Amino acid sequence: MVLHGRTAIVTGAGRGLGRAEALELARLGANVVVNDFGQPGRDGTGAASATPAQETVAEITAAGGTAVAHHGDVADFEQARALVRLALDRFGSLDILVNNAGILRDRMVFTMEEEEWDSVLRVHLKGHFNTIRFAAAHWRERAKSTGEPVGARIVNTSSEAFLAGSAGQPNYAAAKGGIVGLTTSTAAALAKYGVTANAICPRARTRMTEDVFAAFQAPAAGLDPLAPEHVAPLVGYLASPAAARITGQVFVVHGGMVALLDRPRVAARWDTAKDAFSYAELDDTLTPFFAAREPGETFAATEVLGLRRGQGG
């Protein structure tokens, strides 16, 4: 019960990853605010419903835990404010924020509509920002009033799509890349208040990834390597006091594996003895270098992780 007495918000917790994470945090002793807007379509369409969040709350309470449901849209600034306020009003504190809510509107970049771009950035990136903004303001005020670090935790959900690209998901890849930048910036801004912020890139079989992992059949017996339950323990760990020294990091996680991503490193460097390169010098220098590489060849990290283009949670 390493999280006993602590309160967590988990967004998108009615199904899939968020549900597994909420159950794990409750198992570790946390009070959980289960947020889910409850739309039936993975593209964010359909009427909102209170049922998914309430079902997760029912699972938690049936197992002896404590939870409350919130049915708001975290991409709405005021509803995100209300989510944080619910945690404070109901449990008297907020210690953990897990951002997981998201939708998909897949399309190639040359056919994508403006609304398909805006909606995905709104839910993923703005949704992460909104909850962080109000949680961070609360933690900053708490630290200033007590003079003590608050020991709070933020776990954001990115994707390997930001690293390897995903041809039919320019909106999703951009949003997930933005979440990494938001995470590292938040970690730097909140370190003085005793708040950590990290991101995970999960591979898990959920309704958002059913197409990606369709070829990977779940085993007839035993735990599916792509089950969300493989991801949840890392979230629980990052939310715990044991992870106090871990912040500004990005992890890849799936069945039986946790990998820490390195910051981008310089792959090659060229210098000129002059004040600046000329076009001719760049042609002489860069063209042979890239002629020896496959078009679009990127970070070696993709090879280490066994990642193919279009793969990732």
TrEMBL record:
Residues 6-231 form the Ketoreductase domain. InterPro entries: KR_dom, NAD(P)-bd_dom_sf, Peroxisomal_Beta-Oxidation, Sc_DH/Rdtase_CS, SDR_fam. Gene3D superfamilies: NAD(P)-binding Rossmann-like Domain. The keyword Heme does not apply. GO terms for molecular function: oxidoreductase activity. The keyword Oxidoreductase applies. Pfam families: adh_short (PF00106). Keywords: Oxidoreductase. Belongs to the short-chain dehydrogenases/reductases (SDR) family. PANTHER family: DEHYDROGENASES, SHORT CHAIN (PTHR45024), SCP2 DOMAIN-CONTAINING PROTEIN (PTHR45024:SF2). This is 3-ketoacyl-(Acyl-carrier-protein) reductase.
